Amino acid sequence: MFKNFLWFSKNPADEREAAILSAAYQRALAVLWVGNILAWLYVSLISQNSSFETPVILNAIVGLFVVSVLAGWVVVRREEMTFAKPKTGKRLAFLWVPTIAAVSFVGALALTWYSPRLEYVGIVGFIAIEQVAFAIWAWNWTRGFTWHGRMVGALLFPMSVVGYQLDRKASNGSRLLMAFVMHLAFTLVPAAIAFPFFETVAMPAGFFGPVAPGYEYNATFTHTVLDKRMVGGLHAGDLVMLPDAIILPSGARPTYGVVQSVSGNDALLEVLDDVTTSSTSEAPDRSVTEAHKESFSINIDGLVAKVIVDPPFASVLTHSLSTFTLY
Amino acid sequence: MSEIRSKLKDYRAKLDLTQEELAQRLGVTRQTIIALEQARYQPSLELAWRCSRLFGVPIEDVFTFIT
């Protein structure tokens, strides 16, 4: 039923199988490219205010790769293929490129499972290894060129070289078009990964320039506590949405809390929605903060909660909470 | 897309070769010989040339492309 499902790991035994595998690669890459463009359109046009946490990005990448493999399999599955054994195959690139990509991706996933704080590192590592694999592929496929040309092709335009060499029987125009398409598709994906990495990890952590609080760069994002810790830790003044399970000694079940201080893994929170007094202050968020009556300490390692890191939104929410409580 | 007509099966019968034997002589798989005989695959110029050399006839006698 799933004959030749792992088509990308096979070596062609003759020119017919090479042509079929080439067609499968083209189909898979075309699907990858179209999916990439659609994802970009979705992110940029439709869901501008949605939060995209790294597990979502990881899932999207996994899904896109699986769909592209399936698209290639559709080309291969009805064909009678024998395939060459890896030791006798001439085109080992058909084997080792997907193998490296798979190993690096599993490594990225393992890093993520080991510690959520490493998820960005895992993703960026995966992309880096993948780019290196493509660069080596491009280097091997430009034999006959001067080493200057090979360096430029391998380091700057590896995907263009790969795209150009995919179908050697095609016209020169088609090959150039494929090279351009591949270059666009595979530079957008790393860019899509790298941008949130720099925005949410590198810049707030002070890798580039001074250390800055994470929320300054995440005005519309809602992060989990772990994310928040990763980008610089909880800060006094952060608004935290609490899990339902928390019951205070007074019997209150708070929904929101404001971080007063953080000491190690313990955060001192003040309950926001246990407000019983009103205020006519011009700054409603501050008035509510002043009205807090109950504080409690909680270990943030065990806190499955959301941190709202958008100061303007936090102010609005704080104001609406006070209004709701008052009336 | 041009269509191909193949007389590979006839020439193979003249030489009294099996598909497997012909595949070995041409350096391809048996599945490729089947695909060529059923005109499901268009051979490369190199493979077509090897066929014509093996049978001792011009390429166009073995393969005919109809545009």
Describe the structure in your own words.
- The complex is a heterodimer of chains A (327) and B (67).
- Chain A has 327 residues and is of the alpha+beta class.
- Chain A has two domains: 7-205, no CATH class; 221-326, SH3 type barrels (Roll).
- Chain A is 55% helix and 9% strand.
- Chain A contains ten helices and six strands; from the N terminus they run αααααααβαβββαββα.
- In chain A, strands 1-6-2-3-4-5 form a six-stranded antiparallel beta sheet.
- In chain A, 28% of the residues are buried.
- Residues 210-224, 274-292, 309-314 and 316-327 of chain A have low confidence and may be disordered.
- By secondary structure, chain B is mostly helical.
- Chain B has a single domain, classed as 434 Repressor (Amino-terminal Domain).
- Chain B has five helices and two strands.
- A two-stranded antiparallel ribbon of chain B has the order 1-2.
- In chain B, α2 packs across α3.
- The longest helix of chain B is centred in the C-terminal third of the chain and has 11 residues, at 45-55.
- At the A-B interface, α1 of A face α3 of B.
